Amino acid sequence: QEQRESVVVGAGKRVVIENNLVESVIDETTDDLDRHLYWRKGYLAFKDQSLNQVVAEVSRYATFNIVISEPSIGDMRVGGYYPIDNLETVFSSFEINLGLVVEKHNDNTYYIKSDKSENQEKS
């Protein structure tokens, strides 16, 4: 796909810009556009997105590092609304709703792993 410096778009389109060039123009439903703009209200909103995508987006706003310790859990599906000013709530959601384990280490890094790996370590 050709990258451009400018593009004219109408309602219902989302423009992705990278390195000051138009990366893509995507048709979006009103609900999807609203979800992408929810950060203006102080929340990150996710709907059936992979754990990898959610962690990447949360990392953009976080003052801490997040590591998915097991590649196999990166495709788990996540949804929800999380306050930008208290992003640690996303970790509680991962633990409660997905059965994952989130550990904070001294270097200000959170590690996300499956509950299964926790049980294997205790065996």
Write the layout of secondary structure elements.
Blueprint: E1 13-18, E2 21-27, H1 30-36, E3 43-50, H2 51-61, E4 65-68, E5 77-83, H3 89-98, E6 100-105, E7 109-114, H4 115-122
Parallel strand pairs: 4-7
Antiparallel strand pairs: 1-2, 3-5, 6-7
In short:
The chain has helices spanning 30-36, 51-61, 89-98, 115-122, and strands at residues 13-18, 21-27, 43-50, 65-68, 77-83, 100-105, 109-114. By secondary structure, the chain is of the alpha+beta class.
Can you describe what's shown?
There is one protein chain. The chain has helices spanning 30-36, 51-61, 89-98, 115-122; strands at 13-18, 21-27, 43-50, 65-68, 77-83, 100-105, 109-114. The protein is α+β, with helices and mostly antiparallel strands and 123 residues long.
Sequence of strands across the biggest β-sheet: 4-7-6
pLDDT averaged residue by residue:
83
Q: What Rg do the Cα atoms give? A: 17 Å
Order of helices and strands: EEHEHEEHEEH
Q: Terminal Cα separation, in Å?
A: 51 Å
The counted number of beta strands is 7
Content of β-strand: 35-45%
Main β-sheet description = 3 strands, mixed
How much helicity do the residues have?
A: 25-40%
Shape: elongated
What oligomeric assembly is this protein in? single chain
Spans of at least 5 consecutive residues with low confidence: none
Count the DSSP helices.
Answer: 4
Based on secondary structure, the structural category is alpha+beta
